[in-house]
Specification:
This protein is α+β, with helices and mostly antiparallel strands. The protein has a 9-stranded antiparallel beta sheet with strand order 2-3-4-5-1-6-9-8-7, covered by helices on one side. Mean pLDDT is 85; it is low at 225-245. It contains 5 helices and 9 strands. The chain has helices at 26-31, 85-95, 120-129, 193-205, 207-222, and strands spanning 6-16, 46-48, 51-55, 61-65, 68-74, 101-113, 146-152, 157-168, 174-187. A hairpin with a 5-residue loop joins β3 (51-55) and β4.
Amino acid sequence: MQQTLEVQELALVLAVKRQDPTLLNPEFLHYSGIIPEAWELAGQPVRQPQGAQVSFQNGINIIAYPNQTTFVEPLQDKAEGEVQIASVAQRYTEILRNMDYQAVGINFRGLITFPGSKEGAHEYLFNTLLAPGPWQQQGIAPVRAGLNLMYTFEDNRLNLGIQEAALQLPEAEQVPILMFTGNFEADLRTIDPAERLAKVQHLVGNWPSNLETYRTVVQSFLASKVETTADIPIAEPTEQIPAIV
């Protein structure tokens, strides 16, 4: 069974010094032109001083807290040109250009599945990504672990988390998975306030480059030729993306 990286989600995070979350509402988003008129709500918006959320039927969520606004979109089977939240976030920052933007985060969530092997994810993590040893044999149950790694590149830094989890399928079957969560963060506090808006818009629009870096790093794990005890070979990533329930 071949392993593939399946990128599930993109989240764009705009950190701000302070804001009123209750300003986030469907009327403001529509009338200001931040979102298209055709977008329909998926449920009743949440609007409270500690946080607000607007969810749409296309799967996009916009969430505001006193210190940040997050734009989330599922990436299932979407081409780059079909992703909408980058342009939404750019219009949002253009309308709210006087906000004190502190940082921009570009976050990805992806996974690899191990169908047909109940302990496949665990074995891959502990026998391929980690060196086997007596430390794994302590206690009365299999040891669990998560990895947090930091990669530094010329123009940014990737924080990568790897964690065991389970994918719940519609047939009530659970498939073991490894989650790969990637975060690129740019600190804007040292940038002149007059230049921050342009920097925010550039960073948000540059998410495809971040996705390519994220894929390349995760691919280095998938390219490992060491097999788990379930004898699961490793292959190149594809774009087939199941949904997490």
